[in-house]
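Note to self: the last two entries modelled the partners one at a time, which told us nothing about the interface. This time every component goes in together.
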Amino acid sequence: MQVCFGVDVGGTTVKIGLFKEDGTLLEKWEIPTRTEHQGEMIIPDIVQALNEKLSEKGISHADVTGVGIDIPAPVDKDGVVQQTANLGWGYKNVKQEMEEASGFKVKVANDADTAAVGEMWQGAGKGVSDLIMITLGTGVGAGIIVDGHSLTGKGGAAGEIGHFCVNYQETEKCGCGNRGCLEQYASATGITRMAKLRLEKENTPSTLRQGEVDSKTVWDAVKAGDILAKEVAEDFGRYLGHALANLAVVTDPEIIVIGGGVSKAGPIILDYIEKYYKERAFFANRDVRFMLAELGNDAGIIGAARLALDE
Amino acid sequence: MQVCFGVDVGGTTVKIGLFKEDGTLLEKWEIPTRTEHQGEMIIPDIVQALNEKLSEKGISHADVTGVGIDIPAPVDKDGVVQQTANLGWGYKNVKQEMEEASGFKVKVANDADTAAVGEMWQGAGKGVSDLIMITLGTGVGAGIIVDGHSLTGKGGAAGEIGHFCVNYQETEKCGCGNRGCLEQYASATGITRMAKLRLEKENTPSTLRQGEVDSKTVWDAVKAGDILAKEVAEDFGRYLGHALANLAVVTDPEIIVIGGGVSKAGPIILDYIEKYYKERAFFANRDVRFMLAELGNDAGIIGAARLALDE
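The predicted structure of the combined assembly is written out below.
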C-alpha cells in the first residue's frame, strides 16, 4: 500500500496526517513547533515524527509516495520561503532541506493555498476546478484555484487579498503600511476594530457595551438582533462582498468557499457577503455559489497530502 | 519542417500567420470576416485559406502541428463560445467545428489571453512566467498568466477586468449594467468620456475645446502640457494604477504589459499608471515592471501559434 504525508506547519503546533493515496486519512497527530533558534529544529522534528510513525506502522520508506508541507508564509515555485512571521525562519529552502533530511519527495506550499486544495479534494469544492477559498482569521488569506491549478505567482504572493484595497478613504493604517486593506474590515481583528469604532462613535444601545468585544461576540449579537452589531455585519459584508465581486472578474470561479475562525459564526456570514456580492457582480459571475469550508482544521493536512501526490 | 498556424479572428478581418515551430513567422495575410448569416462562413473561410496556403507552399497536412485561433469573446476550456458581440455567432463549439472542417488539431482561446501569450513568447514578456497584459482599446481586456498558464476560469471569463469596480460613487452606467467599471475610465472610450465631462463642467482653457476629442487628441494635449488633459490623465492613471495594485495581490505578476490602441500614446501612459500603482502596491508587488506591448497587431497570431504548439 502506498501512503503519503500531509504536514501543516503552524506557529504553535505541526499537524501531521498519514494518508492512503485515495485520500483516506489513516491517522493524524500533532507535535509542537519549536520556533526557538530561528526554528532550526522544525524540519528535523518533522522528519523524526514521520520516521517514527513509519516504524510504528511497519511501513517502508519505499511505500511513501511523498510529503506535502504547508507553511504560513509565501512559498515560491521552488519551495523557498523568504521570511516567516511566526516560525523563526528567515530565508529557507524548505523543499531542499526537507528532501535531504528525509529522503522523500517533498512539495511545499503556502497554507491558504493548501487549504483551498484540500477543500477542492475532499471538502466544499469537491469536483470543482475553479474556486476561491477565503480564510478569515487574524488576517485574511486566499487560496485561488483556476483551471485546477493553485496560483503561486512570481514570489508565491498570489492570493494575498488581505491587502486588496477596499476603502481609499480609510485613515487608519493596516499592518502592511497601506490604508484601506480588506483585512482591516473582514478579518476577526477587523470585525473587532469596526465594532469598537462604532461603540465609541455612536450612542446606539448594544449588548456589546458589556463584556468582551471580538468577532465571536459580534456575530452572537448579530444573531440576537443587536442593531449596532448588525451595522458592523453590513460593513463586513459590503467590503468583502464587493472585493469578491472584483476578484471574480479576475479568476472566474465556480464557487467561493469561506473558512477560518470567523466562518464559525455559520451561514449567516454568507448572507451578508452574498447580498453585496450580487449587488456588484459582473453578469458572467452572478451564479457563483458561496459555501462554508467543510474541513476545518484538517484542510491543511488534507491539502498538503494532495500536493504530495501531484507529479 | 513542421509548421503551425496562428489565426486571429476580429470583427472585420481574420489575420493568419504561418509559423515554423521555433516561432519564426514565415508569412502573414488577412481575409475578410464574413459575419452575415450568423457568421456561418467564418470557419469554412479560414479552413480554405489555410489549405490554399499549404498548397501554394507545397506543405503537406502532416507537417502542420496544429492551429491556434483567438476569438473576441470568452472561450471556455473546451473551446466553446456562448456568444460573440461582433462575429454573428451565438453558441459555437469552435474547436470541434474547426477540427472537423480542417482535420488539424485546434486550440481556441480568448483574444486578450492570446495576446498575453504572444507577448510572453516573443514580446515584452519574453522569459517571464507571471504577467498581466492589459489591452486598452474600445474596452479594457486582460490576459493573465500565472505560473506559465493563461487563466481561463469556469466559463472563460477570467481576466474581464474591464468590469473591475474602481469607483463605487459613479452615477453613469457601464455597458454591462454596473456603475464604476474600470472600462469607464481607462479605455479609449472612457478617456474620451472623462475629457468631455471635464470640458463641460470646468472653465479651464484647453486645446481640446477645438476639434475632435478622443483618446489620441487627449494624449497629444497631455504631451503639449494642456492642463485639463493632464487632469484626465491623472484620473486615468489613478483608476488604472489602483486597480492594477489590487490585481497584483491576486496574481503576483513579474511584469505588467500595456497594449491596445491607447498604448500608442507611448511611455507617457506608463508614467501616469506607475505613479498611482506605486502609491497603493502591497510591498510584495512593489518591484513589478511596467512595459508597453511590443508585438502590436501581430500579438494575436503569435500567441495563437504558441497555443497551437501546446500539448
